[in-house]
Amino acid sequence: MNKSVIYGILFFSALNTSAQEFEKSIASARSAYGSGNLEDARFNLEGALREIDIAIGKEIMKVLPTTLGGMAYNAKDDNVTGTSGALIGGLYVHRTYGKPDGKNVTLDIISDSPLMAGVNAILSMPMIMNSSDGTQKVIKVQGYKTLLTKRSNENGQTTGYDVQTPFGNSMLTLYCQGITTEAEATQLANAIPLEKVIKLAQ
Asked: Are residue 71 and residue 84 in the same domain, yes or no?
């Protein structure tokens, strides 16, 4: 690891990231690097990147609606974490709306989601707008290609929809339970300030 990498990471200390832990990780990384302990330097830099992801996640939470389709958000379920490995940061934002025993929506924003490859493969297929069994459909949400997946029970009744919108290296997913029409699921997706989320996440 060369000095330019260290100094590049130090640049992020100028960001207001509520970061006692961030500053501690940076200081530890510099100390470890200076003493030639590259393993500890890498470990502490990864910790600093996690703090940045958490700070970004908190900013995203601020722009998300507190009600969605008439459903209030559940503050106790809000969750923001950052993961990091090999100097690649990861963002995870989680919010729920509604009640478990009624209509409810779970919103997840994940960077480097393992589902992205499959979703992007479907979205990139030319002339493919609907799956043969009618469970999946390519739609546009605020100008972004999105995969809409219908979920049904054993009797063939619609129980909900998943709405997956990839952007950059991240994906926003709405898991809509008790939402039984495509129009309602699409309306919920369009109620998310997607451009603001993308601007913060990228």
From this structure: yes
In degrees and rounded to multiples of 5, residue 158 shows phi and psi of: -70, 130
Look at the pTM and tell me if it is higher than 0.85. no
pLDDT in tens, 52-101: 888 889 999 999 999 999 999 999 999 998 654 433 448 899 999 998 88
User: Which of 30, 62, 94 is where one domain is finished?
Assistant: 62
- 31 phi/psi in degrees, rounded to 5: -65, -45
Question: Contact 94/76 with Cβ under 8 angstroms?
Answer: no
What residue type is 179 in one-letter code? I
The answer to whether the beta carbons of residues 163 and 146 sit under 8 Å apart is yes
Among 48, 183, 103, which residue's Cα sits nearest to residue 163? 183
Task: Name the residue range of residue 104's domain.
Answer: 64-201
- Provide the pLDDT confidence category of residue 4 given band limits of 50, 70 and 90: very low
Local structure of residue 154 (DSSP, 8 states): T
The Cα angle at residue 164 between residues 161 and 168, in degrees rounded to 5: 175
- Give whole-number Cα distances, 97 to 56, 147, 152, 174, 179, in Å: 21, 21, 21, 10, 12
Q: 43, 62, 81 — which closes off a domain?
A: 62
Total domain count, the chain: 2
> Residue 13 in 3-state DSSP?
helix
Residues 5-56 pLDDT 10s = 443 443 344 344 455 666 666 676 676 667 776 776 676 666 667 778 888 8
Residues 112 and 194 in one domain: yes
